[in-house]
Amino acid sequence: MDKFIKFLEDYLGEIKYGWSKNANDEELPFQVIKYGNGPFECTVTYSTLGLSKYPLQSYMNEKEIHQELIFVSDSSMGDINIPAILQQVGKMLLQKNRALLRGDVIGPYGALSTNSKLEALYSTMPVYFPDDFHSYQVNEELTIVMTWLIPITSQEALFIEENGWSSFEDKLEDLDPDLIDFSRESII
Prior knowledge:
Elements: H1 2-12, E1 15-21, E2 27-35, E3 43-49, E4 56-57, E5 64-74, H2 82-96, E6 105-106, E7 118-124, E8 135-137, E9 143-153, H3 154-163, H4 165-175
Helix pairs in contact: 3-4
């Protein structure tokens, strides 16, 4: 685990602090960590740590996937809701024994933060980071996949459902919205 933590800190900056309990003071089977850096100036990154100890099933082919969740936000937002979001998603994955695959949508379940139109999460590769960060090779048999959760609007979630994740990612590439901005407008 020490080598994996070094890998995370090499890309995300020094660990600032973490959460091992939820808001109800219940111990979780993994932690949520806040790092000193994000992919851009004035951003920070959060991740799960320890979720990858649990092999999760792919619903596409029953393959076992070990993954950690990544979340990037503007550093001025503070920690409001982000640790809880990662805790809820991680617990859901463990309860369902199901990995998040590229293009999966969680929600919509209502605003992710006050005054935000973002109501769902989109699962994809962490493209704001170098390619070497997308996965971590523990050994010949075990790779940890880094899965980026992007907040999206309910309209974007519906677009993905109706048109597929590839069409949504094409739109993201064409329009280049600020995916870290919790107050951004829908691209649909």
